[in-house]
Automatic annotation (TrEMBL):
Protein name, UniProt field: Extracellular solute-binding protein
Source organism: Caballeronia udeis
CDD domains linked: PBP2_NikA_DppA_OppA_like_17 (cd08503)
Residues annotated as domain Solute-binding protein family: 111-479
Pfam hit, one: SBP_bac_5
BP GO terms, sorted: peptide transport
Recorded superkingdom: Bacteria
A GO molecular-function descriptor: peptide transmembrane transporter activity
């Protein structure tokens, strides 16, 4: 059977079916892996014997009321380019206008979106992407393979500064020595596509990715924050009137104030049910969001922490939502700092904290302990390592060996909003005192924080949910990745991550992941106290809403009653 045939099937799928029947793998494992290999979600759910939740949602969507206006409170930050979107808030503003090739749902299953399907070769190196027919840009032009190729190549250009480059490194993109040296005399490195044929137009509706190494997570990479499909004619610029394929047109956008949209009546997909929609920026003060919900100035929030939810859940018109995800807060340390560059210091900082106490004080219990390696129990390749707790004596001994028997003093940068981030920094600072480390807390407004978050020696950064641990690690810790805020660069880590990327079976991948997790606990640049329960609130008049683990807002799915 031809690899490009619509009815082609990856040879590993019958193996998965047999393993499911004999109990070797779980239904969850089957669903995720079979769909990544190109089996439709409908077929995968049928074979698994699990009811497809999206069928019920589709039936419910047909009954949603039409018309009306929806207001959601969310920070509205400067947007330089969709391909540079770095957090959910920026991505949410763009997402209503521009779309992704794939869609990872609340069930953690990735489906085609602007694609109608894909096929992958036996060795996981060749991915054939079939573009959905009938999709048009707002200006009436059809979406084509040329558009997709341009977008994929653009995010692979280091000059663009897209975090997607870090995801593609290791199979589509390679680092190379530029022949130049930096100020310290070290060779300068850059990135480029490994081959002129790495991203290939097959015909007007087909694109092929030819990788030099196997990669299982390609469909999930295509749903990353910054992997928007934007109109090449706009050259990466986004604002009111931007051309897109999405359900809304952006009519107004003001940083720090809000974004307004009107519905497209010619949208190719589901919805929109609303006539119009807007984000309203409520600022950094968490009390402002509570007041806005209480007074019905907004109909919902993009996020609400445990303190805010507790304050609002008794309001008769408010519905709370929550889900445990791989969302977290990471106290990260720059490895090029004269103190934090010593791994013994980083180990001591990890041993200084009482995770459960931080969860209780900072999250009001809405989370579970983390293990300082940024791979979550919800990730399919997570490996459970032996637990270790707070050990003040060992931490002080490590500091003394590093030359700091009396501890040291350091500034720690954070944001005041969401409030759980500031609360976490305060809790950490109190616990670091016990090993002689004095932390001076430096809160910055969000806009200023994002200007320095990759530069300051010590800070706390909120990290969003990703469906796979290998995605998070590639974004945050791979050498020279755009979001590698700690400057971490470890060839052993990079090689292990490359190895994990090409392993199809999550159980086998977890064997390599155990090595990565242990390496991070020994050498890594982070103190990670917890995994958060992501929560928010909506007015009960909002229909069709469900919590996406990545904090994504899909306004075309929502409706409002009078």
């Amino acid at each position: 059977m031809s690899k490009d045939s619509q009815c082609s099937e990856h040879p590993h799928i019958p193996v998965l079916v047999e393993e499911l029947k004999t109990g070797v793998i779980s239904r969850r494992h089957f669903l995720r892996t079979a769909t990544l290999l190109g089996l439709s979600a409908v077929a995968a759910y049928t074979l698994s014997g699990v009811a497809n939740p999206f069928i019920g949602e589709a039936e419910a969507a047909d009954a949603l009321p039409k018309g009306g206006h929806l207001r959601i409170g969310m920070r509205c930050m400067e947007i330089k380019s969709p391909h540079q979107a770095d957090f959910a808030e920026r991505s949410n503003v763009i997402r209503q206008v521009c779309e992704f090739l794939t869609f990872t749902g609340n069930d953690n299953i990735t489906r085609p979106y602007l694609l109608e399907r894909w096929e992958v070769s036996d060795d996981l190196k060749t991915w054939t992407l079939h573009i959905r027919k009938g999709v048009k840009w707002h200006n009436g032009r059809a979406l084509t393979a040329d558009d997709v190729v341009w977008n994929l190549k653009r995010v692979c250009d280091p000059a663009v500064g897209s975090s997607t480059l870090g995801l593609f490194t290791g199979y589509l993109v390679q680092e190379y020595d530029t022949g130049e040296k930096d100020a310290s005399g070290k060779p300068k490195k850059s990135s480029r596509l490994w081959s002129d044929k790495a991203i290939e137009k097959v015909d007007d509706s087909t694109v092929r990715l030819n990788a030099f190494a196997p990669q299982i997570a390609v469909p999930e990479h295509l749903f990353h924050y910054a992997m928007f499909i934007i109109d090449p004619a706009e050259k990466g610029v986004f604002g009111p009137g931007s051309n897109g394929t999405g359900p809304f047109e952006l009519t107004e956008f003001t940083v720090g104030k809000g974004a307004k949209y009107k519905a497209r009546k010619d949208y190719w997909g589901t919805g929109p049910y609303l006539d119009s929609f807007e984000f309203i920026d409520l600022g950094d003060n968490p009390g402002a969001s509570i007041s806005a919900m209480a007074s019905k100035q907004v109909d919902g929030l993009s996020e609400a922490d445990a303190v805010q939810v507790n304050a609002m859940k008794r309001l008769p018109h408010v519905q709370p939502y929550g889900v445990l995800t791989s969302q977290t807060g990471v106290a990260r340390m720059r490895v090029d700092h004269k103190i934090l560059g010593d791994k013994r210091v980083r180990q001591a900082m990890r041993l200084a904290i009482d995770r459960q106490k931080i969860i209780t004080t900072s999250l009001l219990g809405a989370g579970i302990p983390a293990e300082d390696h940024h791979v979550a129990p919800v990730h399919p390749e997570y490996a459970a390592l032996p637990k270790y707790g707070r050990d003040i004596g060992k931490a002080k001994k490590l500091l003394a060996e590093a030359g700091y028997p009396n501890g040291f003093e350091i500034d720690m940068v954070t944001r005041p909003d969401p409030i759980w981030e500031l609360n976490t920094v305060q809790a950490l600072a109190e616990q670091f005192k016990d090993i002689g480390v004095k932390v001076n807390i430096k809160p910055l407004p969000s806009a200023q924080y994002w200007e320095v978050w990759t530069k300051v020696p010590f800070s706390l950064t909120g990290w969003g949910h990703r469906p796979l641990g290998i995605m998070t690690l590639a974004l945050a810790y791979r050498s020279n990745a755009a979001w590698n805020e700690s400057g971490y660069s470890n060839p052993e880590f990079d090689a292990l991550l490359d190895q994990a990327d090409g392993i199809l079976d999550p159980k086998k991948r977890s064997i390599v992941m155990a090595k990565i997790e242990a390496l991070m606990q020994d050498d890594g640049p982070l103190v990670q106290p917890f995994w958060r329960t992501f929560s928010t609130v909506m007015d009960k008049k909002v229909k069709g809403f469900s919590v996406h683990p990545s904090q994504y807002i899909f306004a075309n799915q929502y409706a409002v009653t009078a």
